[in-house]
Write a structure and sequence with these properties.
Elements: H1 13-24, H2 36-45, E1 50-55, H3 58-63, E2 64-66, E3 75-80, E4 97-101, H4 108-115, E5 120-124, H5 128-135, E6 141-145, H6 146-153, H7 158-161, E7 164-166, E8 176-181, H8 184-194
Helix pairs in contact: 1-8
């Protein structure tokens, strides 16, 4: 991810913000990197004290404490320029084959439509495979964080890059947050982070 990664300077822009916010309170952060699902398991088990960066959903809010927003996180739909695509409401997406990443909640409404079978969504393990599926016309559109999607596309050949575009309307502009377990230590850390 161009936002959080072991291979990026200071572990990426989100990690930089997190490290600096905690440093103001004299707290030193140590990062461990896991796939999304495993990161959630590590937090639930108490093996880590916090996890970044997550979008708020009702289910997650019942289970975890959420920090102030750390990153604006605009999710948009990517498609090939050869696919005429426009949308204002989720109902406009019904005619399209949609690819999406497992474990990602793009918006609560999107998730609800998918669960109710109102949208044809094909979920994959690796976000990078959505780019290949789009190029081979197995899907028509896929949602992704704008920066993440653009970074995935930039790894392609110049001819392939030129085939892609994204719709400017954000699916959701829910910010990303740091999440903590609901315990006393976490409440103190959350307060320190937010300050």
């Amino acid at each position: 991810s161009p936002l959080i990664s072991k291979s990026l300077k200071n572990n990426g822009p989100i990690s930089t913000v997190v490290t600096e916010a905690f440093a103001i309170s004299g707290i030193k952060v140590k990062y461990r990197f896991y796939p999304w699902k495993r990161a959630m398991q590590e937090l639930r088990s108490g093996r880590v004290v916090a996890s970044s960066a997550w979008r708020k959903t009702t289910r997650r809010q019942n289970e975890f404490l959420f920090s102030e927003g750390v990153y604006a996180n605009n999710n948009v739909f990517f498609h090939l320029k050869s696919t005429p695509f426009d949308w204002k409401t989720l109902d406009d997406l019904k005619p399209y084959d949609i690819g999406a990443s497992l474990g990602y909640a793009y918006s609560e409404a999107f998730e609800r439509y998918e669960q109710q079978g109102k949208l044809d969504v094909f979920r994959v393990n690796k976000e990078s495979s959505l780019v290949d599926m789009l190029l081979s016309n197995r899907i028509d559109i896929f949602p992704a964080n704008r920066e993440v999607g653009l970074a995935l596309i930039r790894t392609l050949s110049p001819e392939a890059i030129n085939q892609f575009t994204f719709h400017p309307t954000p699916i959701s502009d829910n910010p990303l947050h740091i999440i903590f377990n609901k315990d006393k230590t976490s409440q103190w850390l959350l307060k320190a982070f937010n300050e």
